Known about the structure:
The structure is a homodimer.
Chain A: E1 3-8, H1 16-31, E2 35-40, H2 46-57, H3 63-70, H4 72-87, E3 92-95, H5 97-100, E4 102-104, E5 113-116, H6 119-126, E6 130-134, E7 137-139, E8 145-147, H7 152-163, E9 168-173, E10 194-196, H8 197-205, H9 213-222, E11 226-230, E12 238-241, H10 243-249, E13 258-262, E14 265-274, H11 279-289, E15 294-299, E16 306-314, H12 318-332, E17 336-340, E18 343-349, H13 359-369, E19 374-380, E20 383-389, H14 393-403
Parallel strand pairs in A: 1-2, 1-9, 2-6, 3-6, 9-11, 10-12
Antiparallel strand pairs in A: 4-5, 7-8, 11-12, 13-18, 14-16, 14-17, 15-16, 18-20, 19-20
Helix pairs in contact in A: 1-4, 7-9, 8-9, 11-12
Amino acid sequence: MALIVMKFGGSSVADSEKIKHVAGKIIAKKKGGNKIVVVVSAPGDMTDDLITMSEKITSEPNPREMDLLLSTGEQVSISLLAMAIQSMGHGAVALTGPQAGIFTDSEHLKARVEKIIPKKIFSFLDKGNIVIVAGFQGLNPNNDIATLGRGGSDLTAVALAAQMEANICEIYTDVEGVFTTDPRVVKDATKIDTISYEEMLEMAGSGAQVMQARSIEVAKKYGIEIHVRSTFSEKEGTYIVSEEKIGRKKMEALMVSAVTFDKNQVKFSLIDLPDIPGMAAKIFGSLAKLGINVDMIIQSAALDKKNDISFTVSKADLKRTQMKIDQLAKELKAQSVVCDEHVAKVSVVGVGMKSHAGVASKMFEILAKNDINIEMISTSEIKVSCVIDEVDLNKALAELHKGFKLNKK
Amino acid sequence: MALIVMKFGGSSVADSEKIKHVAGKIIAKKKGGNKIVVVVSAPGDMTDDLITMSEKITSEPNPREMDLLLSTGEQVSISLLAMAIQSMGHGAVALTGPQAGIFTDSEHLKARVEKIIPKKIFSFLDKGNIVIVAGFQGLNPNNDIATLGRGGSDLTAVALAAQMEANICEIYTDVEGVFTTDPRVVKDATKIDTISYEEMLEMAGSGAQVMQARSIEVAKKYGIEIHVRSTFSEKEGTYIVSEEKIGRKKMEALMVSAVTFDKNQVKFSLIDLPDIPGMAAKIFGSLAKLGINVDMIIQSAALDKKNDISFTVSKADLKRTQMKIDQLAKELKAQSVVCDEHVAKVSVVGVGMKSHAGVASKMFEILAKNDINIEMISTSEIKVSCVIDEVDLNKALAELHKGFKLNKK
Lengths: 409, 409
C-alpha cells in the first residue's frame, strides 16, 4: 500500500465545483489502494483578498497578526474539501498546520519548517481516513500560527512527504507539467517527462514559476520523487527525480533540457570606478545589508586603472537599489551610474551539458547568428544565462529552443 | 485599575472604517487607566457567507469541519482589529479562542464552555497590551476547534469577565440599549437605564433579541455587571445587574419594566381528546424526542370526559410538529387538529410585579378594553404572557406600553 501526498494549488479549489472535482480525484486515488495525505492552498484569490483587507487598516501590519489573518485562507479550503469528500461517502479529516504537527522557527511571514511530528496524521490514516492538511502554515515556538511565505504550500507537501517517507509527492496545478520553455511564448514547447532536481533548481532560479527552489531543495535532500501534473486532466505530467534515476531511464541525455527566461530584471552599471581593492565588496555588502538580492555580476578588465561593474537585481528592488547606488557612486568616485530596465535574462538548463562540451559557445553562436547582442553572461555547471535586450527575448527563446532541438517532433 | 471586557458584534467590525472606529474606542478606554480585554464576532455577514460556501458543497456538513470553517470569521476580525490598534501606536495581541485558554465540551456547533484558563491573557495584559479574543470559539477535548452556537460571542465575553473577575462587561451593539419595547413598533419606547438579570432572562424568552439567555445566566451566576450600549454613540446604555443592586438604586420599582413580543409562534390545538391520564405526557414526550421546543400549553377543563389541548411552538418547527401531531391525533382518537399561524405572544416583564398585585388582571383589562381577544395565558413570577391574534399585536403593544406608564415623559 503506497503512501501518496497530493498537493492542490489555489486555482484547483477556487469554487465549489472545483472542490468537488478535486474530491473526486482524491477518492479515485484512495480507491486505487493508497493511503492519501492531501495538502491544499487557500481558495483562488482569498490570500490576496485578505492582504487587501489588511492594507485598508494599515500599511505596516504586525507580522504575528498578519499570519493569523492569512492562515484563515487554508483553513477554509481544508474544511470545504473535507466536507466534499465526506459527502461522497469517504472518511476525511481536515487539519490545520499546527494540528498536523508542523513546527516552524519564530520568523513570521516567511517561517522555516523546523520539524514535523505527523503522529496525528498517521493515526487518522490508520483509521482509513483521507487526511487533509492546510499548506503554508505551522506552529512557532510561541505557540503562534506562522506562515511559510511564497511557495509555502508546495513546501508543506514535500516536507510532509519526506518526514512520512511517502512514495511520491504529486503537485497538482493548472499546467500540464514542466515545459522546455513557456508554451505561451514558443508554440513548439514540449512537456518534459522527467527532469532532475538540479535542473529544476536552475529553472526556478531562471524565472520558471512552476515550483519554488526551497521545495525542490527539500525534495532533493530527502530523495522525494515529485510529479507535477494538471488538476484538470488525467495525463502524466513531469517527474522530478535524482540524476541517477534519469541516468537509468535515458542512455543519452539531451544537451539541454529547457530554455527559461526572466523579464523581471534591471541592470545597473557603475562606470569608471577607480581600480582599488575592495570596491566590489563595498558595493555588494551595502546591497546585501538592505536585503537586496543581486543576481548576475560582471566586472570589466581595466588597463587604465579604471573599471566598470554591472549587476542585475529584481524589478521590485529597483528604487531602493537606485538610491543606494547613487550614494555609493559619489562616495566611490564613479564617473556615472546607468540603469537599464529593458533587459531580460535567457538561460539554457540541462544536466546533459556536463558531458557535452560547447553548450555555452553554441548558445552564443545562435544568438549572434540572429543579431542578438549579449550584455552579460553567467554560467553554472548545468546552466548558461545571458542578459539581452528585452525586445530580442522572444526571438532568442524561439531560436535557442529550435537550436537545441527541443521542438516537438 | 479596573479590568474591563468590551465585546463588539459583527456589525461593529463590518468594514475597515468601522474597525478603526472600534480601535479608537478601545484605546480611549485604555487611556482612561483600565486593563482591556476585547471580544469580537466575525465581521458583518462573514459567518453567513461561510455557511453558504458549505451549502454549495453539501447539505449535511460534518460538524467538526463546519466548526473549523466557521471559526475563521472571528480569526479575521481579531487580526484586523489588533492591526488597527497597533497602527495607532498601542500594544495589542490577537488570540483565537484556543489560544486564549477557552476550553469546551466535545459537542460541535453548540459547544458549552467547560473552563477558562486565562494565563496567557493575564500575561499579555501585564505587559501593557490590549488583548483581543475571538468570540464564539474554544478548544474541545480532542484538541479541535469548537464553536459555541447562537449568542456565542456574548457568552465568551461574559464567561471571560466572570473567570477574570472583571469589573464590568460592556456589550457594544447597533442599538442604544434595552428598550421598554421595540422602538420600531412603539415610537414612545424608552431606553431602560437599569434592569435585573431575571427581567433580561424573561425578555430573552419573550422574543427581545438583545442578548441570548445563556450569557445572562452566566452573568447572573457570577454577578457580572453588563452594560449594553451602542458602538456608534457615547451615550450610556442599559446596565444589567442583580435585583439587590436595583433595589438600592430605586426605592420604588416600576410594576412593569418592559413589554415584549414574539411573532415567531404557531398555535396547535387538539380538539376533543378522550380524558384519559397520560395524554399530555404522550403528546409532549413525543415532541421533546424530536427536539421540538414547546413554549406555552393550556388544557381546558372538561365536564364531558373530553378535553382540548393547545400549545405553541416556534414557526421553524411548524412542519415537523404538524406531521407528528396529525399522527398522534389519530392514535389518541382526537376529533381534530387546528393549526393557527396567525398568532403573536405579548408579554409584560418586571421584578416590580412581585410587590405589586394585579399586574396580570391589569394586563387582561387593558387588552379587553381594546377588544383584543386572549387565546392563551402563561405567567411566571416576573412575567405575564398572552397569545393573541397577530393583527392585534401593534395595538396591544402600544396600549400596554401606555397603560403600564412606560411612555416617554
